[in-house]
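CORE FACILITY INTAKE
Project code: CF-77B
Contact: R.S. (postdoc)
Sample description: multi-component assembly, two entities in total
Requested service: structural model of the whole complex
Turnaround: standard
Below are the sequence entries exactly as provided by the requester. Do not edit them.
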Amino acid sequence: MVKISSSEITPEEVYLDRRKFMKGLGAIAAVGLISPSSVLPKNFSGGEELTSFKSITHYNNFYEFSTDKEEVAELSEALTTSPWAVEVTGLVEKPGKFSVDDLKSRYTQEERIYRLRCVEGWSMVIPWTGFPVASLLKDVQPTPKAKFVKMTTLMRPSEMKGQKSWWYEWPYVEGLRLDEAMNNLTLFATGLYGKDLPNQNGAPIRLVVPWKYGFKSIKSIVKIELVEEMPTSLWMKAAPSEYGFYSNVNPEVPHPRWSQKTERRIGEFRRRRTLMFNGYEEEVSSLYTGMDLKKLF
Amino acid sequence: MIRFFKPAVHILCSVPFFLLISDWLNDALTANPIQYLTLTTGKTALILLTLSISVTPIMFLTGKRFLNPARKLLGLYAASYATLHFSVFVGLDYFFDWELIKDAIFEKPYVLVGFSAFTILSLMAITSTKGWKRRLKKKWKPLHRFVYLSAFLVTLHYIWLVKSDIREPLVYGTIMGIFLLLRIPVIKNVITKFKNRNNSAQTAEV
């Protein structure tokens, strides 16, 4: 029988159930990791048990460092995340460059507990800290022509060894339709488990779109561009027939080579059935009314 | 040296199994242990299958007949790891949930391809004994040539699993393809002639 490892890091136990979870947040707030006024945990995971801090930080798909999920934590230590500026540009009235500290103080940081479903068939429940993408977009004022948001990861092969691989077209690019980006669930995360975002999870700032497969949630963002045409992501270029622009979690649309009907929650033994839009149907299905999701995968 | 050859093969083939046991005892089966077990046993089976296929061509090229027993041993170990791989898939990954297994098989054929390769390897393992060799007579050799079909199916199974970068499965596929080429009579004849010419040239020099 396989023994599932359990982390011994304190926050994990703190987060074990809702009651303890609230108490834990109080404790974290008290030591000043997040300001008390901003402690507004929003649980979008249906009260499911959180994945351990150890698993979240030691099982990472971050091809800029390695294609081996076990290796990313160590290799990503090489990344310099400060100073860090995010450039907001393109079809906006007020373009600008923002430091991550600036963004963190400007926008109220929230706790958001989301499920994350990887296209490979595993999933986690992660307590993020961050702010809604909509908050930033409202401030930079997209022009009426802006239809999509294109985001780009840092390009720095000296620190991101994986970017030396010629198989993929670096830097990593992802995109959302403007209304998807403006959805209340769409988050810029700057932390998890009440701590600053670890490098392997996309420090210092990353996207989190919980109803889409994990690869849409682009990490270590340096550029946000409002554009008129649908951007082409790294995965769309790598395998156009397999990875579409939308990539919504959908058990009825199999990956061309494997089924998407089930998933294994990290830390659990039995597989579970995958839910439409990763269980966020209520929040997001209206974005796709009238669309053939089998064609627009 | 030759005396220690068979025991050495046994030891080397057991190493991956004991590494897995050690990973398990050290809680090092990763955050996704079942997937790790599946990938490790599958890859070990593929490597041993490749090595098993390499024995005959290497003997032909080098003339080292003592390598002969390795072919059967490596093949049997490859079949054993494939059995582990299959058992992990059915027993741990899908926990004997036939409904889910049916979905996994019929929605996308990579499972079916892997299962076909596994069936071929199992049949070969069962009929690898002297008794079966006697019973099957002239049919034995053609049956065991199916190892090349199994190698092809395993490569396809692996290619269909990776997210995009298919370089690694292609490496195994190419190696096995080259070994298959070396078994084709025409190519064998060319190499034999070349070897003979070299030999006679050397003799002439002396």
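Facility notes:
- Residues 33-62 of chain B form the longest helix (30 residues).
- Chain B touches chain A through 27 residues (CB under 8 Å).
Invoice: internal transfer
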